[in-house]
């Protein structure tokens, strides 16, 4: 079946290292996306025409463009056009954050406008200051709605990191390919075993995260 | 009545939304222990009037005083003033992420800096009084509309406000739940609390009010004791309004 290939030398360790590369790119990108997304979402909820127009164009670009095209633009395009020679991993993080910020921004905006005005007013009517109102009433509600949604974004990012091998990053899928290539002679049928293991690794990384999101959603709904 | 302290003084207030005048030269003095019921057709400015009193709406002209202190939404002491004016809204707007007990205890602990234990004890006592002892650890979504509205009343009461404002608190409730909320308010009336109540429940208004204010087109059209207002309204506008609650027999 090809599983035996993984027991040779450091093959399995390399696969895990590849997984870590994928996880690292998505976690850093999600971190950046959450911070920038909160800022973007707050700005969008202000309903200023200019901000609304700009953010709508931005969101559409992200929605329409395949992530791979974005990766190529940043990694190959920027270096040619602007002499900006970005390392592959940095390019990947930029693209994933660009995508994540758009999604988070939209989520934050949605959460902010979904809190009814009366929640603010009933808090003010109790003598609560603006700060207290946001701190104890509004933000906790937003976080409860936001966390399950942003966890969902993390799992989608982890899955999409399989694209970054196209710009030369050796992540888990690429490591798998390399192992298959290197052992073509000795085990010509390694593909199934190796890719099945890669599948399992993705699953092990994403499943707990998605369970957590389901759990939180249920608990806070 | 004349001997009682003047708690709330409203002097010639005007309120506009853009070009629309909602309140025009409204004045009213509320004495301690007085229960004033405000009635009028929808859109007459009743809710806006209440919302001006605790500074949720800014007034364009005039003055509002609580115990001689001006109510100014932009003023620094507005939170202090709102502590003294409790308000209950139509859409029992509890904080959905907090339990019933946490909903009630939040403001006294965070705003008035009272001791947690003391606040909790009082909260439990008040919740028991409105028949919700069994629900203290529930979340708002687990309660019926009537139960939520009773919690909202307790949440306002625990701040020990000098005046209570009720803005159509039964309007969003199913008919069978109206009574349980009105009973709580009747209980408050017996305790001689100062209250301003906007309502469409005419029978309740008649039973509870010391004074009825009829608001129409942004003006106070009548200011009378309930018996007089409901039995022999002076103005045609009030007669017409009251007739909308009556049905002729077939």
Notes on the protein architecture:
The complex is a heterodimer of chains A (221) and B (250). By secondary structure, chain A is an all-alpha fold. Chain A has a single domain, classed as Orthogonal Bundle (MetI-like fold), CATH 1.10.3720. In chain A, 80% of the residues lie in helices and 0% in strands. The longest helix of chain A has 35 residues. Chain B is of the alpha/beta class. Chain B has a single domain, classed as P-loop containing nucleotide triphosphate hydrolases (Rossmann fold, 3-Layer(aba) Sandwich), CATH 3.40.50.300. Chain B has nine helices and ten strands. In chain B, a hairpin with a 2-residue loop joins strand 4 and strand 5. In chain B, helix 3 packs across helix 4, helix 3 packs parallel to helix 5 and helix 5 runs parallel beside helix 6. The radius of gyration of chain B is 18 Å and the shape is globular. The model of chain B has no long low-confidence stretch (mean pLDDT 92). Chains A and B meet through helix 5 and helix 6 of A and helix 2, strand 6, helix 3 and helix 5 of B.
